[in-house]
Design brief:
Layout lengths: L3 H7 L9 H8 L4 H8 L3 H6 L6 E4 L3 H11 L10 E5 L25 E2 L4 E2 H18 L6 H11 L4 H21 L1 H12 L5 E5 L14 H4 L33 H4 L3 H12 L6 E4 L8 E2 L8 H11 L5 E7 L5 H8 L2 H7 L6 E6 L26 E5 L2 E2 L1 H10 L6 E5 L2 E2 L6 H11 L12 E6 L9 E5 L1 H8 L20 E4 L7 E2 L3 H6 L8
Parallel strand pairs: 1-2, 2-5, 5-6, 6-8, 7-8, 8-9, 9-10, 10-12, 11-13, 12-14
Antiparallel strand pairs: 3-4, 14-15, 15-16, 16-17
Organism: Penicillium argentinense
Protein name: F-box domain-containing protein
């Protein structure tokens, strides 16, 4: 008699009996990790389930570079790649007490070894802060599956001595890559080998938060279960709700300071000097309070020249540009008032998408440059998307800019703005848009969609906010109510919009008060 186990082993998974076309459709919704699991389940699925590499990751880690180069020389996979994502965060070495103004202050005792954990005190504190931040970001939410998964890693955390040993190895490997310029060489190889490459994204946010990375790069996927480490960012950033660091004038900055933007600088230089098909460039801060030092646009420098050369390239269409300006526009907004950014942007004649943000957290702020001195709208006849984030604006100035956009405009995204007008907020600005813009007279199919994102009642963590899209559009073009609260400049009425988190998709919920959210089983009851 044949055993039940033997019978099962001879059976093919039901999925393998489906037509190949259906298996391909199903697998298109899976991550590569899930595709690998599916391929390993049986020979039949191994043959019909493809791996797909639409994007590849690059960083100063040798494993990321190894995988990147393997895809670049693969006869099939290299044709699938349309995007390179450059993780521009780097692990910090054992810090020293510096004299340079740009470095954060650190007590000498932070540099000493912790006798209990056998690693530096600053490392211990960073790991403890990670766990504390996870708990604060969870807040009063019920335990979701992603919370439970992270808690299991916290419970299984490696001894900090072992975490430090691995961190030290990662740092050593990183330094070897930097010394050999292996990441730069790999990037050049990718430009040569990926015939369908369209976008380059450089981001300081790849590591996300502890046990919740934004991207699962090969390096991050290889981390041991329960590995805790100070989350690297690379670009100068600050903790939640702190004022942004002031940028150092680029002409006075050391190479060590400039290399905080290592990936940015290499990408600008290589993309400006080599042949390629890249038409989209995204410096993606994911709402972290950071950006590219805007002082590169204050005076002539290589980085400004490289940026301008990229803007001049034929068919360049897409730009995400976050700028580090300090918390109130360092040096009288010199990096914007010089006109060099305006001139560079005016070279992008075929631009269809621009998203611009700064490190401004609150307003009002004096002497903010007029928007038309930043954005050369008259040079963008095909513009479809305009985004402005974390900036302080005068309402009439913003209205004049919106009125000047071409009829090709299809989307306007205004997020975390602050108004310099005394006593005026989002409610008044939406009223002004409805009254003064002629967009409602256009054919419904070509009216610009307007997305507004704001803090809401409770100051959010980085990446969180209230998204208003349908509500804004219904008010501007239909019979919808103004979604904003009277006398509350940056808070929509409860019931309007969705609460989202750029780092945590599972966080999404309606914009309701705590009682309603607890009734829906999203938050715990507090009484």
């Amino acid at each position: 008699m044949v055993s039940q186990t033997s019978s099962i082993e001879r059976q093919s998974p039901w999925l393998a009996n489906l037509p190949t076309e259906i298996v391909l459709v199903i697998s298109s919704f899976l991550t590569n990790r899930d595709r690998k699991s599916l391929r390993s389940s049986c020979r039949a699925l191994n043959k019909v389930t493809p791996l797909f590499f639409s994007r590849v990751f690059l960083s100063t880690n040798p494993l990321d570079i190894e995988v990147f180069c393997a895809v670049a020389i693969h006869h099939t996979f290299r044709h699938q790649v349309t995007e390179i994502i450059w993780d521009d965060a780097r692990f910090l070495p054992e810090p020293v007490i510096p004299e340079e103004e740009w470095r954060p202050y650190m007590d000498r005792e932070d540099l000493e070894m912790n006798p209990d954990e056998e690693c530096p005190n600053w490392f211990v504190e960073g790991c403890e802060e990670n766990i504390d931040l996870l708990r604060r970001r969870k807040g009063d939410d019920v335990d979701r599956p992603d919370h439970i998964a992270r808690q299991k890693q916290i419970d299984a955390q490696m001894p900090l001595r072992q975490c430090w040993e691995l961190y030290s190895k990662l740092l050593k490997d990183q330094n070897e890559v930097i010394d050999s310029k292996a990441d730069e060489k790999a990037f050049i190889l990718g430009l040569q080998q990926f015939p369908h490459l369209r976008r380059v994204t450089v981001t300081p946010a790849a590591h996300g938060w502890l046990f919740a990375p934004l991207y699962e790069t090969p390096m991050i996927r290889a981390f041991p279960y329960g590995f805790n480490y100070p989350i690297p960012r690379g670009w100068p950033t600050v903790d939640f709700r702190e004022a942004a660091q002031d940028p150092v004038p680029w002409s006075e900055a050391t190479e060590e300071y400039k290399d905080q933007w290592r990936g940015v600088r290499i990408a600008l230089r290589i993309l400006s000097q080599h042949d390629h098909r890249v038409s989209e460039l995204s410096f993606d801060s994911k709402q972290l309070i950071t950006g590219i030092n805007f002082m590169i646009f204050a005076q002539p420098c290589e980085e400004c020249e490289h940026f301008t050369a990229i803007m001049k390239r034929p068919a360049f269409k897409h730009l995400d540009l976050p700028l580090l300006v300090g918390h109130q526009g360092y040096g009288g907004w010199e990096g914007l008032n010089s006109g060099k950014l305006y001139q560079a942007l005016s070279e992008a004649k075929e631009l269809t998408y621009i998203s611009f943000s700064t490190s401004v957290l609150e307003g009002p702020i004096p002497d903010v440059p007029p928007l038309k001195k930043i954005f050369p709208v008259e040079h963008w006849p095909a513009l479809c998307h305009f985004g402005l984030s974390h900036f302080c604006v005068v309402q009439t100035d913003l209205m004049e800019l919106l009125k000047s956009f071409p009829n090709t405009l299809r989307c306007v995204e205004l997020s975390f703005l602050h108004f310099a007008d005394a006593g005026l907020g989002w409610r008044e600005f939406l009223d002004k848009m409805r009254q003064e813009l002629d967009w409602s007279e256009r054919d419904p199919h070509v009216r610009p969609n307007v997305l507004s994102i704001m803090e809401g009642y409770n100051p959010p963590f980085v990446g969180q906010g209230v998204w208003l899209e349908d509500e804004t559009t219904n008010f501007l073009y239909g019979s919808g109510q103004n979604p904003m609260v009277e006398n509350a400049p940056y808070s929509p009425e409860f019931g309007y919009g969705m609460l989202r988190d750029l780092f945590e998709p599972e966080y999404t919920r309606p914009n309701l008060d705590h009682t309603r959210l607890s009734e829906m089983g999203i938050t715990v009851r507090l009484w």
